Amino acid sequence: MNTTPTIGVLALQGDVREHAAALERAGARAVAVRRRAELEAVDGLVLPGGESTTIDKLLRVFELDEPLRAAVRAGLPVYGSCAGMILLADRIEGGIEGQRTLGGMDVTVRRNAFGRQVDSFEADLEVAGISDQPGGAAVRTVFIRAPWIEEAGPGVEALARIPERATDGSRVRVGAGKIVAARQGRLLATSFHPEITGDSRVHALFVSMVAAS
Ligand code: GLN
């Protein structure tokens, strides 16, 4: 694709503006998606964090759930952050009764995986495709009541795992080694929120996936 890709941000809940700004810094044109016609006009889509149970309900209210499932099946590139990662997962642990996902990624995510005691933390993570590039530094990541990937199928590439230590040097007690960023084909998912750090390299990775598709 020679032209600037147009990437939608699902605008039902979450950091819509921050994702749009990061996409624009990464060279895409960002648009809000709330309707089916808007979904049909984008080259890729970001699913922001928020509350996956609420987004699941809103997707049904806005009649976007089936069109989105179909779009994922048809190969639309989608990047899900935090609750967005939950939405992309084929299987979910710790969901509420009746909670559904869009699916597409052959993973089991555990919701609120870090538990109450460490419901938020920051860490500098090595992320494949980003920090391993020439001159690439670790990615500062922010986890907010985040999920992790409990189990992943063979087609899923783990891009980052929970480190042993947080940025403040404290030991990460829960989940060290669990997958927190992954890619499967045109789907990208992170447990963390890259839109709030000012570092748009995760968005740039997604923009390059969209441009290549
Ligand atoms: N805990 C939220 C959920 O289960 C996700 C949190 C987030 O997106 N920051 O949906």
From TrEMBL:
Q: How does it assemble?
A: In the presence of PdxS, forms a dodecamer of heterodimers. Only shows activity in the heterodimer.
GO CC terms of this entry: cytosol; glutaminase complex
Any one Gene Ontology biological process term?
Answer: L-glutamine catabolic process
- Pathway info: Cofactor biosynthesis; pyridoxal 5'-phosphate biosynthesis
* Protein name, as recorded: Pyridoxal 5'-phosphate synthase subunit PdxT
Q: Which UniProt keywords apply?
A: Glutamine amidotransferase, Hydrolase, Lyase, Pyridoxal phosphate
The protein's annotated catalytic reaction(s) are:
aldehydo-D-ribose 5-phosphate + D-glyceraldehyde 3-phosphate + L-glutamine = pyridoxal 5'-phosphate + L-glutamate + phosphate + 3 H2O + H(+); L-glutamine + H2O = L-glutamate + NH4(+)
Task: Cite the EC number.
Answer: 4.3.3.6, 3.5.1.2
NCBIfam families noted in UniProt: PLP_synth_Pdx2
Q: Keyword Ribonucleoprotein on this protein?
A: no
- HAMAP family, per database record: PdxT
User: What residues make up the catalytic site?
Assistant: C82 (nucleophile), H193 (charge relay system), E195 (charge relay system)
Q: Which SUPFAM superfamilies match?
A: Class I glutamine amidotransferase-like
One GO molecular-function entry: glutaminase activity
UniProt source species: Xylanimonas ulmi
Known role: Catalyzes the hydrolysis of glutamine to glutamate and ammonia as part of the biosynthesis of pyridoxal 5'-phosphate. The resulting ammonia molecule is channeled to the active site of PdxS.
Q: Which family does it belong to?
A: Belongs to the glutaminase PdxT/SNO family.
- Name the Pfam families on file: SNO
Question: Which residues of the sequence carry a binding annotation for L-glutamine?
Answer: G50, E51, S52, R111, I144, R145
